[in-house]
Amino acid sequence: MTRRSIRLAFSVCVATLATAGCTASGQHGTASPPRPARLTTPPAPAESPDTPSASPAPSVHRVPLSASDGIEILAAGTAVRGDATYPIPGGIKAGRTLVIAIDCQGPGRLTAQVPSAGVSFPLRCEKGEVLPAMNEIQMPRTAATGSLRFTSDPDVSWSFALGWNRGRAR
Questions:
Q1: Which end of the chain is least crowded, N or C, by CB within 10 Å?
Q2: What is the pLDDT of residue 55?
Q3: CATH of 3-27+36-42+57-165, one of 2.60.40, 1.10.287, 3.40.50, 2.60.120
């Protein structure tokens, strides 16, 4: 199994546990309904030997998604280090799908959190390798304000894009 598939499997497990409403004691909470989440890696373009790659390799110096990916981009950043918080313009909209795409590099951990939606997921980043991740989360409730908060180990560098998936219910 490759590092990327191990990382993806771990992220899926974390996202599943985070959305299942489990408490630290392992008991299911009743305060909030389950939040459907789908963790994926960015799609690989179809390639033929005669055509160059349609998308460049992941990089912390480029935004991982754009409007051409069917995403209404709300915030993005490149070559970010340390902790950061980005507002979600217009707040959280129940039933819409929020997309968070991240490319990280450097030894350590990066955690992304949307506090008003009760969503958090950690990513393990590696030295010398840019690791991409994408998390799509259907918002369980409306909130007038919202933000995407990152906490990062000091040697981790990352880029991200945050937006609404245009293909989902509004």
A1: N
A2: 58
A3: 2.60.120
